UniProtKB/TrEMBL annotation:
Listed cofactors: K(+)
Bilayer-spanning residue ranges: none
Protein's UniProt name: Pyrimidine-nucleoside phosphorylase
Molecular function GO labels: pyrimidine-nucleoside phosphorylase activity
NCBIfam families reported in the protein's UniProt record: PRK05820.1, PRK06078.1, Y_phosphoryl
Function according to Swiss-Prot or TrEMBL: Catalyzes phosphorolysis of the pyrimidine nucleosides uridine, thymidine and 2'-deoxyuridine with the formation of the corresponding pyrimidine base and ribose-1-phosphate.
Record has Transferase as a keyword: yes
Keywords: Glycosyltransferase, Transferase
EC numbers on record: 2.4.2.2
One Pfam family hit: Glycos_trans_3N
Family designation: Belongs to the thymidine/pyrimidine-nucleoside phosphorylase family.
Assembly behavior: Homodimer.
Amino acid sequence: MNTVEIINKKKYGEALSYEEIEYMIDGYVNDTIPDYQIASWLMAVYFQGLNSDETSALTDFMVKSGETIDLSFLNTTVVDKHSTGGVGDKVSLVVAPIITSLGIPFAKMSGRGLGHTGGTVDKLESIKGFHTELPLDRFKEQVQELGIALVGQSGNLVPADKKIYALRDVTGTVDSIPLIASSIMSKKIASGADAIVLDIKVGNGAFMKTEEEARKLAETMVAIGKKLNRETVAVLTNMDQPLGTEIGNGNEVLEAVKLLRDQEYSQDLYDVSVEIAAQMVYLAGKATTEEQGRKLVEEVIQNGDAYEKFVTFIEAQDGDMSSIHEIEAKQSIDVTSEKAGYISSVETQQMGEAAMLLGAGRKTKDDQIDHQVGITFHVKLGDKLQAGDKLATIHTNIEDNAAVIQKIKDAITITQTPVQVNPSVIDVIH
């Protein structure tokens, strides 16, 4: 085969064969096709797209480019979840112990965050002593014994995706739906998932800003799952405001724990977490309907089973549960409203950026995260408030917080008339 011919074929909008996609991926991974030719091919894909067969083939060959994790020894359906990312997204921390307490194994390799806040691994590392690195044998053993393990990504899983993503990042081809879809799905499949639930965030704090974009991405990934024999469901969820009340790392863990203990929680975090968990329960065959799945999920929150499973999980990976109840930032500063009215909009990305200024996220992959800083968000869209009411509280270890405070104030719009608030769960796509 000829690389230039394949590039030209895609440039003119023609569909590539299974063998041509295999040739491109295999050649790039094995360094027989250089960066500049793959960059050219990626740009052709960006403008011309990939059809369903091409996207599935790309996903399949990315999976086959490295090692895969075999969890068949569990003799049950392994369901994984993936979120496209948002501000205050701690859903994995809530969902993992819920489904495990219902007899569904949760074996997840999760990444670190790059951007406004940490990833799930970063959040867990705010717990003193918690180990996010386990040898693969120990990882499997813990899943078999306890039903749950969550560690950082390691090994040689999907090397093609690592190389291609790095190139997409510097060639302006990140926001291509078939490339996004194949990247996400290849990692889930290589990690041993039999079934996958996707949390597709949509709104001003999400990668997908419009429902149309989010729906297209969801449908693409569900189609990949079907072609590669993985039951896949996508849930569209609202990211027009931070999810829950906490943005950060240690404070997000504490918020997840409060929900699991059925003590106090933000309704949007509860609704999204229950829906994602219910879909996982349904795909695992533990419920005959999605509604039955929701009831089972709510029961294990209310009876304490999910919280007990969380404690078992944390202690199994050497975490100190007592440290979860401490916010150790040097000071907390309230940000108050200058006028009365209704919360009509929140620039969610700005709220995330404010948390990053505190040190809760990374500007570059080498930045160190401060696990104890963050923001407590006291208001929600549609709330009525008076002048002087608290909008947020920042938990900070830096001396000059003026830029953080101003960014939070600028992110929140207050009007004199009430606004309609969209639901937290927008749609479920099968």
